[in-house]
Amino acid sequence: MSGKTSTSIKPAAANKALGRPVDTAKSAIILGAARHEFFNIGFAQSSIESIAARAGVSKVTVYNRFKSKEALFAAAVGNECAVMRKALSVEATAGGSIRERLVHFGMEMVAFLWRDEMVRFERHLAVEVEHNPEIGLLFLDAGPRRLHKALSHLLDEAVEAGELQIDDTEQAAEHLSGMIKGLADLERRFGANISQAKIPDPKAKKRVNSAVDLFLKSYSKS
Amino acid sequence: MSGKTSTSIKPAAANKALGRPVDTAKSAIILGAARHEFFNIGFAQSSIESIAARAGVSKVTVYNRFKSKEALFAAAVGNECAVMRKALSVEATAGGSIRERLVHFGMEMVAFLWRDEMVRFERHLAVEVEHNPEIGLLFLDAGPRRLHKALSHLLDEAVEAGELQIDDTEQAAEHLSGMIKGLADLERRFGANISQAKIPDPKAKKRVNSAVDLFLKSYSKS
DNA sequence: ACATTATTGAACGGTTCCGTATAATAAAAC
DNA sequence: GTTTTATTATACGGAACCGTTCAATAATGT
Asked: Domain B88-219: what homologous superfamily?
């Protein structure tokens, strides 16, 4: 789905470069502006002209790169998911006891999910999933499912190292992440003033710790 | 005009009834139509005229009852929250062992939250919360917070009856409900084909049971 | 110089929709 | 009947915005 046009800045091939070259940087700028508009005020409220203005580009250029408003939205979602994948790739947290590792993982998870942009992204994405199911799967694969796999893997290693005793690590991972999110997830999505909230929220530490406590009470090797 | 016939007949007060009386039934019908439009296709995509047509009412009548489109939306949310409050009022589940009661509660919760209408309601509401925070609190108070209080209360009684041993029942309630929702919550909101999904989903029983298992393993009276 | 492609700015047709206004009609009390 | 209010159908002003078109300009090649 990516570049039908040659994306090379330098005339590497040197054989086919006729006329004014495409400014490849503009696509990324447009996507950035689109992200800002789409995930702050929503798809319907966003206008292509406003996005183009924010990107410092003509509206025609936007339509030149992206087929339609919907295509631009899908591209913006894909881009955001790519960013998410990168951000979630640094989740090693190899040091310390199993308890320390789990708490660390939990706090990282909360810090990542509770950000303004993530909350808004989730909100506006969920609505559009209704008449474009693919973007929902895009998000699931880039975010929640990856996180779940990562935590399951962490638990697998701990089991292998004899630190934990778990039959079904995927189920256990779901237990832990579910407890960590808890009610706070809903409060964040429907509560007032997400911009003013501290990230992570004051109760996050207590919530994560108590979740890990309960988790270890059941899954520690006796 | 409509062949619906007048629904109001009795001049109850009999002292102040000048001119054609207001058809009080229409407000509820309008709200029903508004709910359908708003929570199926979203606020921006809904048009007052379409809502009026669905309700079998003139557009002017809609504006006669509700100040603006936003006011109508807020009223629809309020109405839906009232319905939710009623639906969540029958949560006795007094019989059986503590394990049976918790599983029952969990399955009821899943069945209630996983419905199509609820998922769509949540989606479209979350978006509008961004520039109307009050409706978010309306929902939180009618739904999640009520459910949380109910579960906490259930736990309190179990503790009092000597069935469980819990320091912080509110924290414990958050643990349990969090585990019950688990990943499935995200899968439902961002996954494909919510209309085709079975309610409760096939894995719900297993998820609820394993959550209650883990919960009881830690909180049972030794 | 020239040819070729990218980009811009402005304008246009078409659509949708909010909120209001107006004239006509319906349903009650007197 | 008359009076009074609710409701309808229709139309309108105004705004927003999508996607396209066109002429003019910019940036690269030969």
From this structure: Tetracycline Repressor, domain 2 (1.10.357.10)
